[in-house]
Amino acid sequence: MFGCGGLGCPTATYLAAAGIGKINLIDFQKPELSNLNRQIMHFEKDLGIKDKSVSLKEKLGQLNSSIEIESFSLEINDKNIFKFKESDVLVDCLDNFHTRYLLNEFSLSEKIPLVHAAVEAYYGQITTIIPVKTPCIKCLFPNMPNKEGMFPIVGPTCGILGSLEAMEVIKVLTGIGDILSGKLLIVDLKCMEFETINFKRKEDCSVCSKYF
Ligand SMILES: [Zn+2]
């Protein structure tokens, strides 16, 4: 679980409640007051004191004490990401494309499925990358979107996209049902519209073309 914020809180909560046996929580930031509209597993008492990974681990441990949860206060880079090469699925709950691209490369090099979601304001998107089968994140977003820094998020947007991520993870792990492989689900909560589009691999993709 990469990111323990707006997407990470609901996603990890449903996965812990479902009894997913081992969950690694990775985030190096501390919760701030302005996060609390959406980062629902961080409370006022946690502000500025605990790292988000530690705060989330505490709450999930109270929800389900029979699973293994580890917290990592790590800023992910191209070296320390290899700590997680034994994962069965990678979950992108990040807020930036720099780390998201690293995660995409890692997913391909280690052949680990990656559930990707991103949110902004009332909007969200989600897809699942199956390495060397589906297109990758870089096929979908060849250029870094100009969205770094502060951007507004209406809290329930994270709840909905996080719930969808948890559902994708459960389906990837169990093999039940159809997942969003090669498909991008776009959620517009301002108009309450959900649309799924198919997307194709870029033949000259700078990342996944090395692996096909
Ligand atoms: Zn690609």
UniProtKB/TrEMBL annotation:
Alphabetized UniProt keyword annotations: Nucleotidyltransferase, Transferase
GO cellular component terms given for this protein: cytoplasm
Superkingdom of origin organism: Archaea
Signal peptide, first to last residue: none
EC number, UniProt record: 2.7.7.-
Entry GO MF terms: nucleotidyltransferase activity; thiosulfate-cyanide sulfurtransferase activity; ubiquitin-like modifier activating enzyme activity
InterPro entries cross-referenced by the UniProt entry: ThiF/MoeB/HesA, ThiF_NAD_FAD-bd, Ubiquitin-activating_enz
PANTHER family: ADENYLYLTRANSFERASE AND SULFURTRANSFERASE MOCS3, UBIQUITIN-ACTIVATING ENZYME E1
Domain THIF-type NAD/FAD binding fold: from-to ranges: 2-207
Full protein name: Putative adenylyltransferase
Alphabetized Pfam families for the sequence: ThiF (PF00899)
Top EC group: transferase
Family as reported in the entry's similarity comment: Belongs to the HesA/MoeB/ThiF family.
Presence of the UniProt keyword Transferase in the record: yes
